[in-house]
Design a protein that fits this description.
Order of helices and strands of chain A: HHHHHHHHHHHHHHH
Oligomer: heterodimer
Number of helices of chain B: 8
Structural class of chain A: mainly alpha
Helix content of chain B: 55-70%
Number of strands of chain A: 0
Number of domains of chain A: 1
Largest sheet of chain B: 3 strands, antiparallel
Largest sheet of chain A: none
Radius of gyration of chain A: 21 Å
Shape of chain A: elongated
Helix content of chain A: 55-70%
CATH class of chain B: Mainly Alpha
Distance between the termini of chain B: 40 Å
Distance between the termini of chain A: 67 Å
Number of domains of chain B: 1
Strand content of chain B: under 5%
Shape of chain B: globular
Radius of gyration of chain B: 19 Å
Largest interface: A-B, 56 and 63 residues
Strand order of the largest sheet of chain B: 2-1-3
Structural class of chain B: mainly alpha
CATH architecture of chain B: Up-down Bundle
Strand content of chain A: under 5%
Chain lengths: ~290, ~210
């Protein structure tokens, strides 16, 4: 019935009690999971608003963003309330983790990330002399960021009554922007700012934020999300083979990511828009 | 096949539409979404252990376990309570680990057994002395080396059955194969594991003076 001998059985039995994570492992991973979930939630509006930025009017854009929040925002408050409850400031949290150092050595990543140490300079045009493709701030196609924050906050506040928020599934939820959010985690803050740039139609500014992210966090906890935002931003700022290649690298490296659809859609839209408005293939850019 | 005691949903608090924490048994007919916090706390030890024994390197553990729970979080609303919670979570786990294997394009556990950080990780949580810690580390290291001899299909079935103590029916659901396939994989895996252990012991004997 069982072909295992006594030695094998005793070894396997021992493994059942010996292989548990430490308490620090549990807490560190939980923190990272919630951080990533929050970022994914925040990103759920990016492609909607930014993807249509070229073609739709300002009013439509605001409405789309507001509606998205109205639909998805219900589950957000419980998540954020929970996070505020459990999450210590990220810097001190990390410093307190005995195994935090494990993440820092340049060991191969679980996700087959192909990002070099300084991806912004190579893969994405950022600011500065190394990135000739990046337009200066003045060349941004959009005049200024929209005050979406206020509107979104109002919508969430109106829609999310306590009984609903406590029960709504927190799947793919859009976090309610709040002062607590910025203090939650510096990684999340930078990515959120980049998302806001995308939402406001400022992809080059988003790329600069991501360069800042790379400088500060390297391959951080939210690296996958950072790469997705980077691909979307690049597709919007400089549609062409380099942007497509970066999007494809992301899609290959993280095929399970919930952001796959957004990256694909943003990059397809940007290609189509470039062709439609320029009447030329966007590949001519250096 | 070993019978198993599987922690099911008992003790997992569920959220009812009204937002009250309810035990599943209390209201089986209500549509409820498990609470992520409770799911995490009840499953993370199993997930960590199984992921590690399936050959994920210690340096990659955080990323892989995180990935599992990010997906769990995202799909929690889809969990209908028809499956055991652990079975449902492990289905996600197997999916993520297979992706890890593909991405690394090597046999699972090739270097898992050689991870020097394992000692520190284990020592951090156990205070029963360095000798006991070393013994435990050595036992796990040998186990991982033997598990690495199995190919992916057999290894995942073997880990699920022999360490996680799941039934063939549960494993079949997790790995998306039929029960007969699971049973024959497990039989083959046990035989290969025993052979690997014999080889290992023979090798050890040769090394001794």
């Amino acid at each position: 019935m069982n072909d295992l001998g006594p030695e094998a059985r005793s070894m396997l039995e021992a493994a059942r009690s010996a292989g548990a994570p430490t308490r620090a492992d549990r807490e560190r991973i939980k923190h990272a999971v919630l951080l990533r979930v929050a970022t994914l939630g925040a990103m759920s509006t990016v492609s909607t608003a930014a993807g249509g930025a070229v073609a739709i009017t300002l009013a439509t854009k605001v409405t789309v963003a507001a509606l998205t929040v109205a639909v998805l925002g219900g589950g957000s408050v419980s998540l954020w309330a929970w996070k505020a409850h459990m999450a210590p400031p990220a810097a001190s949290f990390r410093a307190a983790q005995p195994h935090a150092a494990r993440r820092t050595p340049p060991a191969p990543a679980a996700r087959p990330v192909v990002v070099p140490e300084a991806p912004a300079a190579v893969e994405e045009p950022g600011p500065g002399p190394l990135a000739p493709e990046a337009p200066a701030a003045g060349e941004e196609p959009r005049p200024k960021p929209l005050p979406l924050e206020v509107r979104r906050r109002e919508v969430v506040r109106n829609e999310a009554r306590p009984t609903e928020t406590a029960s709504a599934p927190v799947v793919e939820s859009v976090p309610a922007p709040s002062p607590a959010l910025d203090s939650l985690d510096p990684e999340l803050t930078v990515l959120r700012q980049a998302q806001e740039d995308l939402r406001a139609g400022l992809p080059a500014q988003a790329l600069r934020r991501l360069a800042e992210y790379d400088r500060r966090f390297g391959k951080g906890t939210l690296n996958e999300e950072r790469r997705a935002i980077g691909a979307i931003a690049l597709c919007q700022a400089h549609p062409g083979p380099a942007a497509q290649a970066q999007a494809e690298r992301f899609l290959r490296a993280a095929p399970q990511s919930p952001l796959v659809g957004r990256v694909r859609s943003a990059c397809q839209k940007s290609e189509e828009n470039a062709k439609q408005f320029n009447g030329i293939e966007p590949d001519r850019e250096p | 096949m070993t019978d198993l005691r599987l922690p099911g949903n008992q003790g997992i608090s569920m959220r009812s539409p009204a937002g009250n924490a309810l035990e599943t048994a209390a209201s089986p007919s209500r549509v409820s979404v498990p609470d992520f916090d409770a799911v995490y706390e009840s499953q993370v030890d199993f997930v960590w252990r199984a992921v590690r024994r399936m050959g994920v390197r210690l340096a990659d553990m955080d990323d892989v376990v995180q990935e599992v729970f990010v997906i769990v979080h995202r799909r929690l609303a889809e969990f209908e309570g028809r499956a055991q919670l652990k079975t449902w979570v492990f289905k996600i786990l197997v999916h993520v680990v297979r992706h890890y294997w593909r991405a690394h394009q090597r046999r699972p556990g090739d270097r898992a057994a050689e991870d020097p950080a394992e000692i520190h990780a284990l020592a951090a949580d156990h205070e029963d002395g360095p000798a006991a810690t070393l013994e435990r580390v050595e036992a796990l290291r040998v186990l991982d080396r033997l598990l690495a001899e199995l190919d992916e299909d057999k290894r995942e079935v073997f880990v699920l059955a022999e360490i996680e103590q799941m039934t063939a029916v549960q494993i079949a659901e997790i790995v998306e194969a039929n029960v007969n396939t699971v049973a024959s994989r497990l039989r083959a895996a046990r035989q290969e594991f025993e052979k690997a252990m014999l080889r290992f012991r023979a090798h050890e004997l040769r090394r001794q003076p």
